[in-house]
Amino acid sequence: MENETIRIRQKVEEALEQIRRFLQADGGDVELVDINNGVVKVRLLGACGGCPMAAMTLRNAVEKTIKDQVPEITKIEAIN
């Protein structure tokens, strides 16, 4: 079970790396906070943290990328 958890975490980190450069180009970033029972918790940083488009970024970029690459993930939540 622990190996599976590590594998999923690595895959989520890889997915985040793919979108991170786009976020960083606009002065933002994303941080993986936790994964528990198929739910990924992330924190939007920098310009993304206070951006009025943050919810759209979370849904259209972060959530889509992670779910496409890690089907075990069922939900993405942003935390402050």
Account of the 3D structure:
This protein has a single domain (2-78), classed as GMP Synthetase, Chain A, domain 3 (2-Layer Sandwich), CATH 3.30.300.130. It is built from three helices and three strands. The chain has helices at residues 2-25, 47-50, 54-69, and strands spanning 28-36, 39-46, 75-78. It has a three-stranded mixed beta sheet. A hairpin with a 2-residue loop joins strand 1 and strand 2. The termini are far apart. 18% of the residues are buried. The mean pLDDT is 93.
Q: Quick one: how many beta strands? A: 3
Lateral arrangement of strands in the main beta sheet: 1-2-3
Spatial shape: elongated
When the domains are counted, the total is 1
Low-confidence stretches: none
Brief description of this entry?
By secondary structure, the protein is an alpha+beta fold.
What tags apply to this protein structure?
single chain, GMP Synthetase, Chain A, domain 3, 3-stranded mixed beta sheet, 3 helices, 80 residues, alpha+beta
